[in-house]
């Protein structure tokens, strides 16, 4: 398998196949387009020519680069025209039997050292290669849409894939201008696997009536820093795509509770409320614009302020809150036990306000909890108990939005919105590392580039504090007895040894 990759065949000229052809031709490789549908490859080439010309008009490519790329694109009129290719990438329908037959047919045409790659997003590479005469030359090469802009590709080794092929395709990805992330042949690989925590936990929070769709999205987008809230993202992707992936990974992992789907998305799928593509999903859409997001909650200024008694699980949180209250010229109650008329603010982790009141021995009628996990400057989330006095809820809301920072008031939840979702995202990343599906660096890079998260999940745990993430998961697990929240051994051991989550045993 020492043959240099110069000629690349691409089977399937849809959006994905055309995207791969674009970066292949642009990087100087002779690129052969084949599609079983008559005229499809030719149409794809014409569209690619238009794309290259538009890039030239925007001064993103030179005339020479455009001419070189266009001259690198060839049409294969039949499968046999790919016989001389060094690498063939299939980007056809996600059907195991069809992919297996295609690879068996290719083996009768190509040389023994031609690499056969699948762009599958969900099927096992080992299964795709199972009927091949030379399964060791079959590999996964999974790109993301739009291919030229999504600068990451998963290189997936089947159980029999030769290591030298992994190396060759990793080098090819670099030539394409993409980051290769190497992953084991497991359900969801890295990116679709790591992405399970965000949407599924948001749906569970919605299902528990903790907050409405708009507030959940707002907390995670404006507060935490995700590019889109989970429901905005589900609408963009489309539930006809997202829900089957949720079910597929859940079943492929034999009903692992971490990946459990939600009945709501199945109902919406049946009602054809798919998101942007049907103009209706979690939000409404028209003319490319989103409608139906509820405005951020506002609070009425109280006639007078009570004194504020503050408690926290972490001393740094208490200091931040005390500094803020002092700057607002509101009196702090610094007594060991709160005054009966004080508003009690507790910065707690992984529990509801009721249990925070029990731990800190405060009156639940006068207590509101606040989430300090993701910071304090962009957005604030407040959680009263079931019996917190309404006027104290309103007062807390006003105080924490007084500096023009938005604050959301949610219903009682065992862990806040951000705490639950971030701890699940980080814990799942740790579990992927624990299973040695990929290296820590590749997991972090894959999630940043493939999912657009502000940080990779494992480095994010270090940034927020691994001890806080473990505390959240331990408390939620203890209070709910739900196995979906059980902490990964990777997380537990590194916290116990005071090591960063990014520490990997050599």
Protein model, in words:
The protein has 506 residues and is of the alpha/beta class. An eight-stranded mixed sheet has the order 3-2-1-4-5-6-7-8, sandwiched between helices. A six-stranded mixed sheet has the order 12-11-13-14-15-16, with helices on both faces. Helix 8 (196-207) packs antiparallel against helix 16. Helix content is 43%, strand content 13%. The protein is built from 20 helices and 16 strands. The two termini are 29 Å apart.
Which features would summarize this protein structure in a list?
single chain, 506 residues, alpha/beta, eight-stranded mixed sheet, 20 helices, 16 strands, 43% helix, elongated
| Uncertain residue segments | none
Tell me the helix content: 40-55%
Beta-strand content bin: 5-15%
Overall residue-averaged pLDDT value: 96
Find the count of extended strands (DSSP E, 2+ residues).
16
Main sheet overview? 8 strands, mixed
What form results from the Cα inertia axes? elongated
Alpha-beta content class: alpha/beta
- Radius of gyration based on Cα positions: 26 Å
**What distance separates the N and C termini?**
29 Å
Biggest sheet, strands in spatial order? Answer: 3-2-1-4-5-6-7-8
Number of helices: 20
């Amino acid at each position: 398998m020492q043959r240099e990759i110069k000629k690349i065949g691409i089977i399937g000229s849809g959006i994905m196949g055309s995207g791969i052809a674009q970066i292949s031709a642009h990087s100087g490789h002779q690129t052969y387009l084949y599609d079983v549908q008559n005229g499809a490859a030719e149409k794809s080439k014409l569209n690619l020519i238009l794309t290259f010309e538009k890039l030239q008009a925007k001064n993103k490519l030179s005339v020479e680069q455009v001419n070189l790329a266009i001259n690198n694109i060839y049409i294969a009129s039949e499968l046999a025209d790919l016989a001389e290719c060094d690498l063939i990438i299939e980007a056809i329908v996600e059907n195991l039997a069809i992919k297996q037959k295609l690879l068996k047919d290719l083996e009768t045409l190509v040389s023994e050292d031609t690499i056969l790659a699948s762009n599958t997003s969900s099927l096992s590479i080992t299964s795709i290669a199972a009927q091949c005469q030379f399964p060791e030359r079959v590999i996964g090469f999974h790109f993301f849409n739009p291919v030229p802009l999504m600068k990451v590709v998963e290189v997936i080794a089947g159980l029999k894939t030769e290591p030298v092929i992994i190396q060759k395709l990793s080098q090819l990805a670099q030539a394409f201008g993409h980051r290769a992330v190497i992953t084991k042949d497991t359900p969801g690989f890295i990116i679709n696997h790591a992405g399970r925590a965000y949407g599924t936990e948001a749906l569970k929070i919605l299902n528990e009536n903790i907050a409405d769709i708009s507030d959940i999205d707002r907390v995670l987008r404006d507060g935490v820093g995700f590019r889109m809230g989970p429901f905005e993202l589900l609408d963009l992707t489309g539930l006809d795509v997202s829900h089957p992936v949720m079910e597929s990974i859940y079943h492929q992992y034999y009903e692992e509770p971490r990946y459990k789907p939600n009945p709501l998305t199945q109902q919406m799928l049946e009602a054809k409320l798919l998101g942007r593509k049907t103009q209706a999903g979690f939000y409404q859409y028209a003319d490319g614009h989103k409608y139906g997001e509820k405005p951020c909650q506002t609070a009425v200024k109280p006639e007078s302020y009570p004194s504020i008694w503050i408690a926290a699980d972490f001393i740094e949180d208490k200091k931040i809150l005390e500094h803020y209250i002092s700057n607002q010229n509101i009196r702090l109650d610094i007594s060991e036990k709160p005054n009966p008329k004080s508003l009690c603010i507790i910065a707690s982790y992984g529990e509801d306000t009721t249990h925070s009141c029990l731990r800190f021995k405060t009156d639940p009628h006068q207590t509101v909890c606040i989430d300090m996990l993701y910071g304090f400057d962009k957005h604030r989330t407040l959680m009263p108990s079931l019996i917190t006095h309404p006027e104290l809820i309103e007062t807390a809301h006003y105080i924490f939005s007084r500096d023009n920072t938005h604050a959301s008031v949610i219903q009682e939840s065992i862990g806040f919105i951000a705490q639950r979702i971030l701890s699940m995202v980080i814990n799942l990343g740790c579990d992927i590392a624990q299973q040695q599906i990929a290296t820590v660096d590749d997991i972090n890079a894959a999630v940043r580039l493939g999912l657009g998260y502000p940080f990779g999940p494992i480095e994010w745990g270090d940034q927020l504090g691994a001890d806080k993430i473990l505390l959240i998961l331990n408390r939620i697990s203890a209070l709910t007895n739900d196995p979906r929240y059980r902490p990964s051994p990777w997380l537990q051991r590194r916290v116990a040894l005071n090591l960063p989550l990014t520490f990997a045993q050599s």
